[in-house]
Write a structure and sequence with these properties.
alpha/beta; 18% strand; single chain; elongated; 7-stranded mixed β-sheet; Rossmann fold; binds 6-O-phosphono-beta-D-fructofuranose; binds adenosine-5'-diphosphate; 11 helices
């Protein structure tokens, strides 16, 4: 188990840490920030909040954080530190500047809350002598080393509730509805909603075969046996929901509407799971820094919180569960 790996770069005693959120925001990021700040204080470390991800790092946009600065945020969506995508950080110069700024401000260690892209930035800082730990924060669940990412649980519940509502109106009008959910290239939100909402079809990039005729045949068949609606949960990566709706309506004669749920999936008060797991991951990240670890990603795997080397984590692959995928099909008859 990766947890037993000894610190590779237990180079120095950490006194001050930085924390930033990067990439798309996710409900639970605030709980993670709170976990970082309060654990650091309990461990005798100082904390600097870095606003707007790597953009804020390069602008030295820091705020000193104490226990009170993370009061009343565990229940809030978004991130109090703001977030950004920072093109400059892809460059060697940007990464050198980031490490230089950390050292100039006495930041010996940094917690980066974000996805795989953000972890590459963390790895660049670790390579330049700033001890860095990644915390998986993305609604997409698309980080291979972990079975949980901050925000997925809230996002998938938000999407599920929205799809329930669309289903009501689809049934009343005896329509087909194509509901597009987020996930960038990953189909986890779509598959989970497909199961939780009892959808007739789920389209995900991981298994999509572009055979619209199969869907059309299925709609015609299901109408014959008396189904009053036909719900298709479509993953963002497959896309083209509007075009698909037009083609399906033309081929089946069944009125069809496309609904793109969009950014409401990224907001809102985090679920209990997101609050608890995000708190634990933020806290573990600081424990790791305090123990001299660097270049690690916190993860949840096989029922426990653990951590992996960033390089190892970035090279891992994960796929959707074949069992869940097949089961969805069986249950949607
Ligand atoms: P996520 O962290 O959710 O995967 P992005 O891929 O957009 O989101 O990455 C967030 C930010 O992390 C980028 O805007 C950039 O500043 C930084 N980043 C991404 N990839 C790299 C990389 N290869 N090297 C250094 N920094 C990176
Ligand atoms: O990574 C989270 C996510 O919400 C993806 O599901 C989506 O593809 C992307 O971010 C949208 O990004 P933006 O908010 O920049 O439009």
């Amino acid at each position: 188990m990766a947890k037993s790996v000894k610190p590779k770069e237990a180079t120095k005693e950490i006194k001050t840490i930085g924390v930033l959120s990067s990439g798309g925001d996710a409900p639970g990021m605030n709980a993670a920030i709170r976990g970082v700040v309060r654990t650091a204080i309990a461990s005798g470390l100082k904390v600097k909040g870095i606003r707007r991800g790597y953009t804020g790092l390069l602008e030295s946009d820091f705020v000193d954080m104490d226990a009170k600065s993370v009061s009343d945020i565990i229940q809030k969506g978004g991130t109090i530190l703001y977030t950004a995508r920072c093109p400059e950080f892809y460059t060697q110069e940007g990464q050198d500047k980031g490490a230089y700024i950390c050292k100039k401000h006495g930041i010996d260690g940094i917690v980066v809350i974000g996805g795989d892209g953000s972890f590459k930035g963390a790895r660049a800082l670790a390579e330049r002598g700033v001890n860095a730990i990644g915390v998986p924060g993305t609604i997409d669940l698309d980080i291979a080393c972990t079975e949980y990412t901050i925000g997925f649980d809230t996002a998938v519940n938000t999407a599920m509730e929205a799809i329930d509502k669309v289903r009501d109106t689809s049934t009343s009008h005896e329509r087909c509805s194509i509901i597009e959910v987020m996930g960038r290239h990953a189909g986890y939100i779509a598959l989970w909603c497909g199961i939780a909402n009892g959808a007739e079809d789920v389209l995900i990039t991981e298994r999509y075969d572009h055979d619209e005729q199969r869907i059309i045949n299925s709609i015609i068949e299901k109408r014959k046996i008396g189904k009053k609606h036909y719900i298709i949960v479509n993953a963002e990566g497959v896309g083209d929901s509007e075009g698909m709706a037009k083609r399906i309506e033309a081929a089946t004669g069944m009125e069809t509407r496309a609904t793109i749920i969009g950014h409401i999936q990224r907001g809102g008060s985090p679920t209990c799971k997101d609050r608890v797991y995000a708190s634990a991951m933020g806290s573990l990240a600081v424990d790791l820094l305090a123990q001299g670890y660097s270049n690690r990603v916190v993860a949840y795997k096989n029922g426990e919180f653990t951590h992996f080397d960033i390089e190892e984590a970035l090279n891992m692959k994960k796929d959707i569960s074949e069992f869940l995928f097949d089961m969805q099909k069986k249950l949607s008859r």
